[in-house]
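This protein record is not my work; I was only asked to verify it. The record follows directly below this note.
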Amino acid sequence: MKLIVPIVVCIVLLAACDSSSMEIDEGPRLLGPMNWTVWSSDSSLVLRWSPIENIQYYRVEIAEDPLLTKVTDSIRTTETQVTIRPKPLGHHWWRVVPVQWGKDLPSSPIGAFTTEDRAYFNVVLTYTFEFDPDRFAGFESVGITAPEHGLADQVMARGLDEEQMEWIRPRQVRSEWIGGGSAPTIFGDLTFLLRSSDRKWVEIASVAANAPDGTTLSLTTDKVLYAGEDYTGLLRISPRENMPSGMQRVRVTVHATAMAVLRPAPPPPP
C-alpha cells in the first residue's frame, strides 16, 4: 500500500510536466506595427503580438539586419506588448521568441520598421524692394523680388535637398529703409507676404503707419510655410502723408526655423 502513493504522485507530476511542456506548432503573430511603418527616431514605439499559452516569458529581439545576426535589444517580458526606447535613424528588424522551461519555442515571423530623423535649423531670407512713391501716391502698390539668400542654397549648404524639407516657420520679420534720400518719418502701411511657386500668397507680417527704418514688423500669422522651391517676397504698401520723392529701397529680412526629415536609404532586398 505504501508503494502506491508515490507511484500515483509521480504519475500526476509527469502528466503536469508533460502538459506544461506541450510543443506548439507556430509562434506568435505580430500585431503591430505594420511592416515598414515609419517611426520618428525621437519617440518610443509599441510592439505587439498574439499570446501563446503555457509559457514562462517572451524574448523580444531587435536587430540591425534582416537575419537578426546583429541584435541590438533583447527584452524579456510576460506581456504581449513592449514599449521600446527611441531607435536611431535606419531600418530595424524584430521578432518574438516564446520561452518555456528555458527552451526556445517557435518564434514569430520577422517584422520590420523604419525610423526617420528630424533636423531643425535656422534660415534667413532677405528681400530688397525698389519703388517710386510718386508713381502710386494714394494707391496700394506691390513690389516683388526673389530672395538674395534663397532657401534652397541654405538647405544645400547643410547637405540636404529640398525634398527633405517639410516646413519653415517665421519667427521675426524686420524691415529696413536702405536708400533713396532721407528716411521718411511716416511711410505708410506695410504688409509682407511670401509665396512658393505652387502655393498662394501667405501674409507673414504687417505694420501700420510706421517708418520702415529699423522697424520690426510684428507677426500676424502663425501659419507654417511648406518648403518647396524658394519663396518669392511681396511687399504691399499703402502710402500716407509725408511720403518721400524718388526711388526708395526697403530690405525685408525673415528669420525662420526650418524642419527637414532625414530618411535612410531603401532597405536591402529580402
